[in-house]
Amino acid sequence: MRALLRWSLLALFVGARAQADVPPEVQLCLQHLKPSERERAARALGPLEALPRYRVQLEVDPKERLVWGKVQVEVTARNGRPLSELYLRLTPNTRSRRVTLSQVKLNGQPVTLEPGPESTLSRVALTPPLAPGASATLEMSVKATVPRAPAQSGSLLGGGGAASGGDHGAFSATSDFLSLVGVVPQVPPLDEQGKPWSGPQGIGDLALYEPAHVLATVTVPPGWTAHATGAPMGEVPEPDGRVRFGFAAAAVRDFPVFVSRGYRSETTTVNGVTVESHFLPRDEASAQRVLKYATQALSEFERRLGPLPYTHFRVVEAPLSGGAGGMEFPGLVTVATSLYRASVDPSAVLSGMAGMEDLQALLGEAGGGAMAQMGATLERTLEFTVAHEVAHQYFAALVGSDPINAPVVDESLAQYAAVLYFEWAHGKAAAERMRREGLVTPYHFYRLSGGEDGRADRATGDFDDEMQYGALVYGKAPMFHHAARQLVGDGPYFQALRSYVDTYRFKWTCKECLVKELAKASPAQARALGALRVRWWEEAHGDADLGAPDLGSMMGGLGDMKLDAESRKLLEEILPQLTGQ
């Protein structure tokens, strides 16, 4: 831990922002929070020095797909309750043991690490239990073998996350990119009975944690770069030519790590936030637009939802698999390579899929304008995806919610916030188009393919597949927010949305919490708002509420092409394949 100790010494010279009663390492982490946000975080979370604290040292060998190092976790028994056991979650171990922990010590003494109730969990008994307010330090060695990315990695179309172990490539390696999401063992939140929250279910997100501080170094070979959440702490050359990258993060609910080779980067600033875009050189033109979309979305959200608490925000191009467009983490998001390239070469989206040759022929018959129209649709999809991932910085990175048992809470709001972004940035007509293309269309695709409407508010593991999950959670459920806005009016709706963010900032929210804020802003509609939430999230009225499928909207206008009856029938048969089922 010598490198981390050097950082601790440097923290003593941070300057006037340092507080005498805050440990130097915490002071260093707090550089990741805007100065104005530190007091707000303390009001929500209590003394910031009492948050869980991670010290991480990782080394990466991309050629062999190996990761190893040491992790130290310091926890304090909070909420006035003793702590009798400590759990650690490793999300890459959902289906196989990809990450192992060894040489585990508790307060410097060797301890036994036991299997937890799930494959991703390990458990350490605290004997005697940790008294309220007392702290304990767990340290361990970490070793991981990163699986190769699936063959279809980088394809915009795909069948969910099954091929990549249900994680869309979150823990995978290509020749130029390693996604190491979940390699750092983290302490999961506990329920009222002291049991850990559920972990990955094979569909949807992987996990979310209590706000914590992280000091990390990631050492990589020459020519490689590390990307992670947090304020950058510099790049230090090692004697053997490798480079050690440092990061300090504060009050974050996750700590993702990525390693790339040959990437370029561009940077800009929005309201005190350094926004970075990291991308492959061949995708530079798309990456410039991604950076523009990210900064526009962040600017709009900060104006209406309040400031992002962090000083740095990163967008990293990644070869996601299973049809995923992006992944969200506190202070960092990934966007799929397939989306960077789709609008530039729309025909690439159609290659390799059953029936796609026929669709390409149809588009060819319709003239060059049809392919250009498809490119414009895919460009809107890219912008919408970026806005969705930026919205996740608020829901659920800032306003925390359970991504496994209640994915409808954050995903539906991130989707509708992306629609709102289009309204704020491009006008109401553009927003209405995206509402239909981004929300209504996935539901209609699902129904046309034979899927049944149902309850959107359920755990990720209770969905049959990714297509059903997408249709109900990303498609139908966000329409609750649209219906609530129509019911109470723009003024009360936006007032409640801002109050929701302010009230639950750095905290955990609930399924009814936004409805409560809406009811405060519009008391006369309290009962109707509750009924709307039940209708859209718990019941099956999608066909009645969303209407009949609109082929034109479903293809971004391509459905309006002048086609004969036989060609139109073929188009309708091919359309559901574009959802990747």
Can you characterise this structure?
An 8-stranded mixed β-sheet has the order 5-4-8-2-1-11-14-13. The protein has a 5-stranded mixed β-sheet with strand order 16-17-18-20-19. Strands 9-10-15-12 form a 4-stranded antiparallel β-sheet, with no helix packed on it. The longest helix has 24 residues, at 368-391. The two termini are 47 Å apart. The chain is 36% helix and 23% strand. It is of the alpha+beta class. Strand 6 and strand 7 (121-130) form a beta hairpin. Residues 1-18, 159-164 and 576-581 have low confidence and may be disordered. It has helices spanning 2-11, 24-29, 35-45, 284-305, 337-342, 346-350, 356-365, 368-391, 407-426, 428-448, 466-476, 479-488, 490-504, 513-521, 526-538, 542-546, 551-554, 565-574; strands at 53-61, 66-76, 83-89, 99-106, 109-110, 114-115, 121-130, 135-145, 171-173, 177-180, 212-220, 224-228, 231-237, 243-252, 257-261, 264-270, 273-279, 312-318, 326-329, 332-336. Helix 4 packs across helix 8 (368-391), helix 12 packs antiparallel against helix 15 (526-538) and helix 14 runs antiparallel to helix 15 (526-538).
Give the topology:
Elements: H1 2-11, H2 24-29, H3 35-45, E1 53-61, E2 66-76, E3 83-89, E4 99-106, E5 109-110, E6 114-115, E7 121-130, E8 135-145, E9 171-173, E10 177-180, E11 212-220, E12 224-228, E13 231-237, E14 243-252, E15 257-261, E16 264-270, E17 273-279, H4 284-305, E18 312-318, E19 326-329, E20 332-336, H5 337-342, H6 346-350, H7 356-365, H8 368-391, H9 407-426, H10 428-448, H11 466-476, H12 479-488, H13 490-504, H14 513-521, H15 526-538, H16 542-546, H17 551-554, H18 565-574
Parallel strand pairs: 1-11, 17-18, 18-20
Antiparallel strand pairs: 1-2, 2-8, 3-7, 4-5, 4-8, 6-7, 9-10, 10-15, 11-14, 12-15, 13-14, 16-17, 19-20
